[in-house]
Structure to design on (176 residues):
């Protein structure tokens, strides 16, 4: 999780982290955005909305929703909450979860639907489909690489270069 990685980086317990934006809390860390991806709807494949190519956000008003935990996944919680608030939807939250894998697994078990980053499509949980929202500018989730600014380890610089190149390749081949 982002907060744990930030603490470990600053304490010198790890050299590099893949995390969500830390903004003003970066301290002595350098960051580089690797991926910016749209948020999508994850839903059971037999759900009535699964046949649509794009989903109207208002369609979620009556849906049981799996939401990211406000305490442990604040970044995703804020993105999803803002989407729902903008559409004036009071969500029917049936479950909260911290990890993306757990959220998609709960969708797979039929508990509800969830708003997740597009990369979740690669998790391949049985019975889950992903649909884009019918929005002109869907909210995006960002994944950053972070490291201590004053770390002069040459392996770190090589890793950063490789990570940036691989993220660019992923963006060209896997994301919409």
């Amino acid at each position: 999780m982002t907060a744990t990685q930030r603490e470990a980086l600053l304490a010198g317990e790890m050299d590099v982290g893949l995390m969500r934006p830390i903004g003003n809390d970066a301290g002595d860390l350098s960051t580089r955005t690797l991926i910016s991806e749209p948020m999508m709807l994850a839903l059971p494949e037999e759900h009535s909305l699964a046949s649509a190519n794009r989903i109207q956000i208002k369609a979620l008003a009556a849906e049981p929703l799996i939401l990211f935990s406000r305490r442990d996944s604040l970044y995703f919680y804020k993105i999803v909450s803002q989407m729902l608030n903008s559409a004036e939807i009071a969500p029917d939250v049936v479950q909260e979860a911290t990890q993306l894998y757990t959220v998609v697994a709960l969708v797979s078990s039929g508990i509800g639907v969830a708003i997740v980053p597009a990369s979740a499509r690669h998790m391949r949980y049985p019975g889950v489909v992903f649909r884009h929202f019918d929005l002109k500018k869907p909210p995006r989730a960002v994944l950053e690489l972070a490291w201590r600014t004053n770390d002069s380890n040459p392996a770190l610089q090589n890793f950063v270069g490789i990570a940036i190149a691989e993220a660019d390749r992923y963006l060209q081949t896997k994301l919409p």
Observations:
- The chain has a mean pLDDT of 92.
- The domain at 36-140 is CATH 3.40.190.10 (D-Maltodextrin-Binding Protein; domain 2).
